[in-house]
Amino acid sequence: MLKPPEGHVTFLFTDIEGSTKLSQQFPDMLPAALEIHHSIMTRAIESYNGFIFQIVGDAFHCAFENPTDAFKAAVEIQFNLENEKWDEVVIRIRSGMHSGRAEWNGKNYMGYITLARTARVMSAAYGGQILVSNDAYEIHKENFDKEKDTSFRDLGERRLKDVIQPIRLFQIVAKGLRLDFPPLITLDARPNNLPTQLTNFIGREKEMKHARELLKDNRLLTIAGTGGAGKTRFSLQIGADSIDEFDDGVWLIELAALSDPFLLPQAILDSLVIKEEPGKTPEQTLTDYLKDKEILTILDNCEHLIDACAVMTENLLLKCPKLKIIATSREALNCAGEQTYRIPPLTQPEPNSTDTPEQLSQYESVRLFIERALAVNPKFRVTNENAPALAEVCSRLDGIPLAIELAAARISVLPVEKIYERLNDRFKLLTKGKRTSLPRQQTLRALIDWSYDLLSEKEKILWSRLSVFSGGWTLEAAEKVCSDAVTHMNEILDLLSKLTEKSVIVYDDTKNRYRILESIKQYGIEKLIDGNDIFLRHLNYFLELSEKAKPELYGENSRLWMDKIDADHKNFISAIEWSVRNENLEKGMNTAAALGRFWNLTGQYSTGIRLIEIILESAGTLGKSSKVNVLNWIGSFKSSQGDYEQAKKYYEEILSIRKETGDKSGIAGSMHNLGNVALSQGDYEQAKKYYEESLAIYKEIGDKRGIASPILSLGNIALNQGEYEKAKEYYEESLVIKKEIGNKDGISRAINNLGNVEYYKGDYEQAKKYYKESLHICREIGSKNGIAALVSNLGSVASNQGDYELAKKYYEESLEIRKEIGSKNGIAESIKNLGNVAYDQGNYKQAKKLFEESLAIYKEIGYKIGMADSVNYLGNAAYKLGDFEKAIKLLSSAEKELESMEAVLDKKEQEIKDDTIAKLHEQFNVEEFVKYWEEGERMTLEEACKLALSNNQF
């Protein structure tokens, strides 16, 4: 296969002229004609070493390392199409060539500007015509073979429809090809005053197409959006792309510098180069001129003259039937016949993105940053090292083109990483705009000042108060947090609507939530006068919401409340952080305690640990009893992450506090948690004592919710020790209680564990039914940890039933979730299971590698039963790889450790082990076998792990 050319590449783009019309006229005959077209294209391109990297419908996109090859291929294609004996369907293509820099990323070309320019060159041509940019012509002309009656016709400088500065175009003239064509399809073909641009228009292809469709069906299209969103450039591009539809052209009327509404008609006359007529008002002169013209006007920056623009626009549209208007404004004109299109931000990476440089290039905001950065620093490159910072810059600037351009301008003096670090003070950083830009577009602050100054006092106040929210807010939240004696609660909805209309905030009707762009938020914080009071109200509101959610997370409506917390998660986090900094620690602590179950179910252990740790660091003045709830949650999160020793310390501290206060329910809970740690560390006897003591206390105080937990845990011990019927009795007893109290998470756990019993017994179909039932509940309540465990369990069922591809799919899905939530124990389990699949498929080297990776994690967190399991698996793998002595020692050591914990292998694992040992007996005499077996028995678990992870014998 031909290698894609890179570096300086010559591109040839083609498409069929009038393809839509052909498909309507010849629906049955066109497919055959297209086959001929594709064959001619492919043959010519490949014969001249061209690389076809994309075919979109009937359009071919090709790349050539040698420009001469591209020219020859283009000529041959046109000649062969012209001389083909077509039936009724005659196919003619237009061709465009351009040369520029581009790199291949494995799937497509990175070089947006080069590709976009090639497409524009092609779009200016007619069927049968080959157009060449000056860039392609210059590097080719000296090598061109003049003996084949081929030459270039200089068509002069032309303005393509990307509105940037003109480029020189050439037409290839060759024997056998059509010579004369109508005037090129460029901006020069229609009267206009569209300004030339020095930079390319980046992205927004879908939005552009949608806006053009709206303009076809409406005579007034208002492009609305926040400051710096690129409304003007977007409108200019729509005008350029639509110019062929208006015989009298496209005209820009710039209103930014106009301050007197009375002068609006005169400003339009001046832009259209119309002289006032004696005895007529400017309005009459304008109307008389436009009444029979097929023309598009762009009224740019209407927001500060909004009323005058609305009246003038409506009047002109009524009297001038062929006139169409595009208006740009931060709010709609609100006049008859208006269609409003709110321009979205450029696409941007997610926060904390781990995308590669190639993946980042798919985002419009990143492409814009790169192009503008290269303009000030040609050596700039996106690397694996600076890609995360670039992703954060584009994300935190919300995809606002002007903000991104201002940030990119700083590449001349700062690396991307430093730009990212300084974004918290973005109004000082983003100050280096073009001197030729409007004053408000030269700095980010000036841009937002313009919007702020156009607001009423109450709108300004609400803007600043809304800035305390993080990640959006609901109407109810705004009413509770932002209202006072000056701004009444019943005014908030109306003010929110006005701020939305003026593009200060954004309303998402699918979520019934409002949000604010980060730059607008930071500006609002600076303007916030009563900051402490508003932030305290924000804390109080989300404390109250968390307290309402706390009991609901255990009941029938748990999913609804999970979604509510998730929608406002950033607000909860910012409220807790503010409480720590501003001497409201107890409220922050109570909020964190109420959110503990949410973090546990969603697997957001690191978030919970970070917030609780900053609370505990400042909690010196708070009493021990008030810290118990957050200590309990951080112990749980540490345990879930595999940090059992730290979890144990927290649980022991809690137990001591609860014994001092005589909190029996709390004592029972601490006993149960300590039992979980002991179980994870393989001390079944100690775990059982803790569980039984916990159960006795819960029964004493009649706490049904509490009783169900140690019963379930006692079942886990019975299961691990092979007492399946006893385990089943425990699980069923716990399930009855969980159903009685409506605890969906508990119901799911009990059903999952009943599935484990059937799995260990070898009834995989019954196990699968239990797992799927439990998984349905976990998905319903949004428990990521539970979903990961159950997907893994379904993988084990599939593996035991011989469906290894399905098993692998389940295990990989489970691993992805566990990595996301940071569950080290779970990660190790999923990796170990993937090792089992590799083992079952006979890929013993890969199995060994995965078992070693799993063992290393289990060893790191001190999860003894996991360590013993992995040592056992590595014993099986060692046998398959021919290291018989090591295999015996590992299997012996693992068996001793599992017996010491009174743990058992499942049915399949035991069968594999028994088969391996039987075959190992065949490799040694009795004395040798016993010698190695006894050496394994004498090893500590630590020594067995060292042997398992070594490449040499112990």
Describe the structure.
This protein is of the alpha/beta class and 954 residues long. It has 6 domains: 177 residues, 2-Layer Sandwich (Alpha-Beta Plaits), CATH 3.30.70.1230; 138 residues, 3-Layer(aba) Sandwich (Rossmann fold), CATH 3.40.50.300; 89 residues; 75 residues, Winged helix-like DNA-binding domain superfamily/Winged helix DNA-binding domain (Arc Repressor Mutant, subunit A); 88 residues, no CATH class; 126 residues, Serine Threonine Protein Phosphatase 5, Tetratricopeptide repeat. 59% of the residues lie in helices and 10% in strands. It has 43 helices and 15 strands. The strands form 3 sheets. Strands 1, 2, 3, 4, 5, 6, 7 and 8 form an 8-stranded mixed beta sheet that branches. The chain has a 5-stranded parallel beta sheet with strand order 10-11-12-9-13, sandwiched between helices. The protein has a two-stranded antiparallel ribbon with strand order 14-15. The longest helix has 22 residues. 49% of the residues are buried. About 1% of the residues have low confidence.
Key traits:
43 helices; alpha/beta; 5-stranded parallel β-sheet; 954 residues; 6 domains; Alpha-Beta Plaits; Rossmann fold
Short summary:
This protein is of the alpha/beta class.
Secondary-structure map:
Blueprint: E1 7-16, H1 19-25, H2 30-47, E2 51-56, E3 59-64, H3 67-83, E4 93-104, E5 109-110, H4 112-123, E6 130-133, H5 134-140, E7 150-158, E8 167-174, H6 205-217, E9 220-224, H7 231-241, E10 250-254, H8 264-271, H9 282-290, E11 295-300, H10 306-319, E12 323-329, E13 338-342, H11 357-360, H12 364-376, H13 387-396, H14 401-409, H15 416-421, H16 426-429, H17 444-453, H18 457-466, H19 475-482, H20 492-501, E14 506-508, E15 513-515, H21 518-527, H22 531-552, H23 558-567, H24 569-581, H25 585-602, H26 605-617, H27 624-640, H28 644-661, H29 664-680, H30 684-701, H31 704-720, H32 724-741, H33 744-761, H34 764-781, H35 784-800, H36 804-821, H37 824-840, H38 844-861, H39 864-880, H40 884-900, H41 907-921, H42 926-938, H43 941-948
Parallel strand pairs: 4-6, 9-12, 9-13, 10-11, 11-12
Antiparallel strand pairs: 1-3, 1-4, 2-3, 4-5, 6-8, 7-8, 14-15
Helix pairs in contact: 2-3, 8-9, 12-14, 18-20, 18-21, 19-22, 22-24, 22-25, 24-25, 25-26, 25-27, 26-27, 27-28, 28-29, 29-30, 29-31, 30-31, 31-32, 31-33, 32-33, 33-34, 33-35, 34-35, 35-36, 35-37, 36-37, 37-38, 37-39, 38-39, 39-40, 39-41, 39-43, 40-42, 40-43
